Amino acid sequence: MDHLDTRTLQQLDAAHHLHPFNDNAALAKKGTRILTRGEGAYVWDAEGNKLLDAFAGLWCVNLGYGRKELGEVASKQMTQLAYYNSFFQCTRKKKKPRKEGHEDCLVVMAG
C-alpha cells in the first residue's frame, strides 16, 4: 500500500473521511486534492503542483513544514512522555522556554 495512485487515494478518502464544510457527495465525484509533502510555507499535491499554504495547516503549522529541529525536539519529547491526559488531577512536567524575555510562558503539551 506504499504507492497508490491518486484516484485510488481519492476513492479511499471518499469512503472513509467526512470533510468539514463540504458537500461530501460532490467532493467524492470531483476527488480531493492529495497532498504529498510540505516545505516551509508550501505544500505539494500528488500532481506535482506547489501550493502556498496560506492557512498554515489551519493555524497549526505556523512555523512551516519540514523543520528538522522541531522534529528532533518532538521526537525527544515523545520518547519521554508522548501524552498524558489532564483528568484525575494530573498534569505533566512543563519547561520554561529557552528564549530570554519569555519567562512568563510555559511550553506545555496538548491534552
Describe this structure in words.
The mean pLDDT is 80. The chain is built from four helices and three strands. The protein has a three-stranded antiparallel sheet, with no helix packed on it. It has a domain at 1-32. Helix 1 packs antiparallel against helix 2 (24-30). The protein starts with 5 loop residues before the first helix and ends in a 30-residue tail after the last helix. The longest helix is centred in the C-terminal third of the chain and has 14 residues, at 68-81. With 111 residues, it is of the alpha+beta class. A hairpin with a 2-residue loop joins strand 1 (35-39) and strand 2 (42-45).
Q: Give the count of helical stretches.
A: 4
Rg, nearest Å: 19 Å
Report the order of strands and helices. HHEEEHH
In the predicted model, the low-confidence regions spanning at least 5 consecutive residues are: none
Largest sheet entry: 3 strands, antiparallel
User: What share of residues is helical?
Assistant: 25-40%
